[in-house]
Amino acid sequence: MRFNQAFHYRDINSGLGIYASSDNSEAFKKACEKICEAFVKEDGSRTAEFVCYSNYFRKFVGIGVSPFESKDKANRLVQIWVPDEASSDPSDYYLRYAYDSVCDKSREYTEEEFDPCISEENYSEILRKYGFSKAGLAGLLAGAAPIIFGKKERLSIVFPEDRLTDEEKRTAAREIMWLLSVLMPVPEELRGDFGSRLTYCVFSQKNRNRVAVSFVDSEPERGQFYRLGYCDPESDRSDHEEAGANAEGKEDLYDALAEKAMESLEAYRTFLRELTDCGLAGEEFDGDTLDLMYFCRQLRSGGVTEIQREDLPIEFNTLVAGAMKSKGYCDLLFRVLALPNDLSKMDLAIVHFNILKDEKNVWSTDPGDLRKTAKQAYEEMLESAFASGDNRFYNNLLVISDQDLRKEALTDLWQKKGEKSCIAGDLGKIEDIDTFLGRLSTYKVLTEIGSFRKKMGEVLFGGDFYFKMDKKERCSVSSLLDPETPDPGTPAFAPWIRVKIKGIFKEGTEKGLIFIGKEKDFLEERYAGEYFDCFLENCRKADKDLRKQVQKTGREFLDSYRTSVSQESQDAFRKIDRDWIRIDLEDTLRQYSLEELADFRFKEFQDYSSEEQKEYADLWLKEVRAGIAKSEVPIEPETLKKLTAKARTLERDYPKTAAGLKKTLWEACGDDIHRKILCANEFGSDVYTIWAENLLDPVVYEKIRKEGNGRIEKQRLVGNREADLNRRCYLLWKDCRGISQIQTGRIKDLSKETAGAQLHGQWTALVENMLDWLSGALEMRSYNKCINYLHLYAERARDLTATNRCADYEDLYNGHRAFYRYFLSQLGSYVGEDADYVREMECLKALWETEAVDKENLTETAQILFRAERILGKGCEALRSVQKKYEDVMNEMNNENERIDRAISENLAEIKKRESKIQELELEIDDISESLAGLEAQQRRNRQLAEAARQKRSGIEKVSLDGVEITPLTTAVEKARRETMKRRQEADASRSGKGSGAQKACFSPDARLFT
């Protein structure tokens, strides 16, 4: 490493200042002057040597103060060596600097290079050379530590008396300072920060306050000092053990450091890294931090087994505050808490509130030893809190943010200590349901452990808490303490439940039944089998007066929990129940009337087997038959309705009983059609059907329409063709009575099926009945009734001609004229055969309503006759009557036409005669016109002459003709022209008169008949 040098000295001309320098820059000189002027004159004959840290250069510098040039207080010679490079390791500056005791004014000073004189290879030699033992080295480190960490400013190291030369002392100072620098107990990255304090001097008397370590020949009167030992190379004897030191420090820490340093430098550095890597280094690193690191290491290694609060190397509250931010401090705190300690409840409460309940803690996500330490600490805290007897404080500690840690700690406590743990002690204090549920919720994480579930079960049933809970609470408790498994086996709660039920039944069967009845609404389904088995075991021999209650309790229980009770237990109860029911049923049914039997509810049998149900149903049917046989009057309709309805409801579960009941009721109806309709309404079968009675009788149809329920109308009777035909005829009849529109196909089908000689007359009578009802219905304005009438009429009149049907139409018209007219008002809505019939009816109506035929309605009558002849045929009586009237009017009109023809001939002859005369007049007019033209020409000439004469002879008198002034010469001509025009107008008038008379003859009222 290269160094610049400078001398601070008094010159005659310039005074005290930098006299010589290898770097002549003003900045360098000024900085050197600031450093050197702080040193005062030294006493003695030796140059005092210093290695100091300069804040001006941010580097270590070497300084020598020589006494030879110091003639007075104001003058002194200070030489300074300033390195070109900066190093963070102070050991790089502990060199063999070349100091001059005089300043050669004629010499030009330059940079110099100093090589390192100590290396790590010399480490062991230095320890041996100065006779360091573990204790001696520990003393040196303990003495230097306050200097390094800035807690103290001075340390004196005393040379052995009269043992070393000046050069050996210089060498010893360099080597001891180098040893302190490499053994500096700070992290590697902080060596530069703390190393700047390792400054020293040798041979100084006056300037020791400029450095931290002073190497001296004798003990100082005050202040910290260390006596350096020395090993004689010849005798290999060390007097270091005899050397004394008054340095302060933690002996255990520095003993450990010295022990590792005595092993090797690498072992020391490894040990130091272990200390500094514990996560406790914060923003400031000092001796207390180092002590804390060593304490933490001792805790981790098991070197500490018990903690006293006063022995902690850090304030407890400070430790908690650090744990809130740092994992290292958190680990230390947990390790302290995990050991037996004398911490107060307040201390534990502070940890709980600030660390364990903090959701943003720094330790919960740590997967390593920190979490394990936290668990141990939490366990110890819980035990301490419970031992204090403060339940509230203990309960508060059970609430932390990290549920996984809580689970691990509680699990570990229970598995290690079991009944002796704070958990078991806490469970022993439970006195009521709320407390139990609260403790169960608190220790829910332990319910995966069988021994804990057993303990909670003992508390649950020992305090009789279980049977005081509602169903929701029981399910919640059992889901934790008696969880269901793939291989269920016997539930854990079963023995306790059996003991409870047996104990209650011992007090009396009635009390047991009351208990089972109450429990039915609260018990859990999985334990229902245990309840029912205990119930069955204690009720088999119940007294007769309790049987009803036993049966009711058992049935209600099975209604709610049938799937949870074993089939064997169900069968056992059913057998008891069946035997008791048979006995009671026989006694009861014998006392019932027929009406009461009809109201009997078979729902009571639904829990029994099909064989048992049939047995009970047959017993009931037997009593019904007996009741009917004993009755001297027919069954009341209301009772019959109930029994027929009962027969239908029994078909699914008791078909045999239902069939027997139907047969019994049908036979009991006898010939009473009203009661048979009631039965048929419910039975709806081919066997028991009303349609087999009085085939096609409208009277029966009317009863069915009023009393039937619709079921007997819709169900086809496949096995009874005649009855089904009757049913279909009824449906046709019912549609006619209603507003439904019947289909032509149905009528045709029924007509074919009734074509036999036996049924044809009845079918015809039914059709007539329906037609009569439709034609005489009060509700005449019904289109569907019109359609139905036409369909039925088409069936009746299918073989009649249109002429023969006229009589039917006339009867309908005369008897039901309003209905007839409404028929025709819907003419546009009919199609097919219906439309044909309606057209026939419309034609007839037109014929009947044509009362008189005259010239005014002759055309309309002709159209009616034409259409009627085409639709009705020529044989229709109404057609012939109207046609005769029409022919009479036509004959009369023909005679009138002949007379008009003769008049027309006469008029034509007169027209020809007058036309001849007109031609003659026209010739005369032409002649007159020619004369008139000549006269007009003459008139114009005369006017011209007259005008000329007027101008010559003003005495000529003017004449006015039709507003035109003319001369008397033209008056005769104008009169002739006017005469001619008058004659022409008369000729034209004569011609127009002849034509008008002929035309009137042609278009006279008589002639209009021929148009």
Provide the fold topology.
Elements: E1 2-11, E2 15-21, H1 26-36, E3 48-54, E4 59-66, E5 77-83, E6 112-113, H2 123-129, H3 134-148, E7 155-158, H4 166-182, H5 191-195, E8 200-202, E9 213-216, E10 225-227, E11 231-232, E12 237-238, H6 251-263, H7 265-276, H8 287-301, H9 316-323, H10 327-338, H11 345-356, H12 369-387, H13 391-397, H14 403-417, H15 422-427, H16 433-442, H17 450-462, H18 471-481, H19 494-506, H20 509-519, H21 528-539, H22 544-561, H23 567-589, H24 594-598, H25 610-630, H26 637-653, H27 655-669, H28 673-683, H29 698-707, H30 711-714, H31 721-737, H32 744-753, H33 757-775, H34 783-796, H35 802-815, H36 817-825, H37 832-848, H38 858-872, H39 877-952, E13 959-961, E14 964-966, H40 971-1002, H41 1005-1008
Parallel strand pairs: 7-9, 7-10, 8-9
Antiparallel strand pairs: 1-2, 1-5, 1-6, 3-4, 3-8, 4-5, 11-12, 13-14
Helix pairs in contact: 3-6, 6-7, 9-10, 9-11, 10-12, 12-13, 12-14, 19-20, 19-21, 20-21, 20-22, 21-22, 22-23, 23-25, 25-27, 26-27, 26-28, 27-28, 28-29, 31-32, 33-34, 34-37, 35-36, 35-37, 37-38, 38-39, 39-40
